[in-house]
Design a protein that fits this description.
Length: 69
C-alpha cells in the first residue's frame, strides 16, 4: 500500500472547513458561513459541497485579526 504524503502537515497547503472550525473554536456550520462570506482569505470550491481554504491566506487573515486587538 502506497502512503500518500500529500496529507502530511508539512506539505498540506489547504485547510478543510473542519480544520478552520477547530482553529477558530466555532461550529462547522459557522465555519462554512465564514468561508462563503469572508473575502479575507482564498476559498477553493471543489464541487457543490466541498471547500478547501488556502492555508497561507487564511493564516495571514487570522494573524491580522489578532493584531487588531
Amino acid at each position: 500500500m502506497m502512503k500518500n504524503t500529500d496529507c502530511s502537515p508539512s506539505v498540506q497547503r489547504t485547510y478543510t472547513v473542519d480544520q478552520v472550525a477547530e482553529i477558530l473554536g466555532v461550529s462547522i456550520r459557522k465555519a462554512y458561513d465564514l468561508c462563503e462570506n469572508e473575502d479575507g482569505f482564498k476559498v477553493i470550491r471543489l464541487g457543490k459541497r466541498c471547500l478547501r481554504v488556502h492555508r497561507e491566506s487564511f493564516d495571514k487573515w487570522f494573524d491580522g485579526l489578532s493584531s487588531t486587538d
